[in-house]
Design goal:
The protein is α/β, with parallel strands linked by helices. Helix content is about 55%, strand content about 10%. The model is unreliable at about 1-35 (pLDDT under 50).
Length: about 325
């Protein structure tokens, strides 16, 4: 079953009318109340496209020119963020060379200049090609911090993943990725859902095909660590046998390491962390610092906010620097 992302951020089931198992792009989420989210305007359409439209949702007006280098940097950023906002804000682009009277009325002195209209009035503005993070902050302020539908869908996907509803999580993350292919959070979500479903080969294919700029994103790197760990834990032995080996010879570091992997594979993350910390305490350098490296993979897999990650990192620091 595929899901449509609605403009309010909820998801609605829809029949599968495309490739099996692959949700189709949810076009309605990219449409505002009265049409396209991004359009060109001139002095004749300015009242309708900006003044009147801003009575419904905030409207950004991008004054640009073909000869303006910074404009070429800023406009794609505006288009990306407005598209991601999914109807919370609109973008109107005005060619300054072709609309000099309009520029004079609004006292445009340099390009690019971006005006923000709300309730029929200009409420904010900035000049120059700001970094994406600052443009996003500008839009967040304009929309009162409201979450875009794609952001809400990402939260729904994370909640489904945390609840063990892995198939639902995979569908939601794929839907978000269909609308925003460069979303590292969506890519990482797809990978984590596939790992949870045992789809390790599929996850590996996605990871291998990613361009370098996405592969190095923190969320994707953490998912890659989870994939590597999933491969390793799939080859572990019986925890009871391994624990007996460790009890018989506490210096059997390989048995303790394998025990940690076996425990993690069976959902006992705390037990795995305890065994790896004990191994690091006994021999930090064993097998090229294998205990420390495995702990880092587990922390990445659990996530930085997890209680076990936070306490485990503190304990590891104590072991390494004691």
């Amino acid at each position: 079953m595929a899901f449509i992302l609605n403009p309010d951020g909820t998801t609605t089931p829809k029949p599968d009318d495309g490739a099996p198992g692959r949700p189709q792009p949810a076009g309605p989420a990219l449409q505002g109340a009265d049409g396209a989210l991004i359009k060109d305007a001139d002095i004749r359409t300015f009242v309708k496209d900006v003044i009147e439209a801003s009575m419904q949702v905030p409207v950004l007006v991008d004054f640009w020119a073909s000869w303006c280098g910074p404009c070429k940097q800023l406009t794609p950023v505006l288009e990306k963020l407005v598209t991601q906002a999914g109807g919370l804000v609109k973008l109107v682009k005005v060619n300054a060379d072709e609309n000099q009277d309009l520029c004079a009325q609004l006292r445009i002195q340099s390009l690019p200049t971006v005006y923000a209209f709300k309730g029929g009035q200009p409420v904010d503005a900035f000049m120059g090609a700001l970094p994406e993070s600052q443009v996003k902050a500008f839009i967040d302020k304009l929309t009162g911090g409201a979450k875009a539908p794609l952001d809400q869908a990402l939260e729904q996907g994370q909640a489904a993943l945390a609840a063990g509803e892995n198939e639902l999580a995979l569908q939601i993350f794929r839907e978000v990725q269909a609308q925003d292919p460069a979303s590292d959070a969506a890519i990482a979500g797809v990978l984590r859902a596939q790992i949870a479903l045992g789809m390790l080969a599929e996850a590996e294919q996605i990871l291998t095909a990613l361009p370098a700029n996405l592969r190095v994103k923190a969320d994707v790197e953490a998912a890659a660590s989870a994939l590597e760990l999933a491969r390793e834990v799939g080859e572990t032995g019986d925890p009871a046998d391994l624990r007996a080996r460790v009890a018989a010879d506490p210096r059997d570091h390989q048995a303790r390491f394998d025990l940690a992997l076996a425990l993690f594979a069976r959902g006992d993350a705390e037990g795995a962390i305890d065994e790896l910390l004990e191994l690091a305490r006994r021999d930090k350098a064993w097998n090229d610092e294998a205990a420390r490296k495995q702990l880092v993979k587990i922390f990445d897999t659990l996530g930085g906010a997890h209680e076990l990650t936070q306490s485990g990192r503190r304990r590891l620091s104590s072991v390494l620097f004691s």
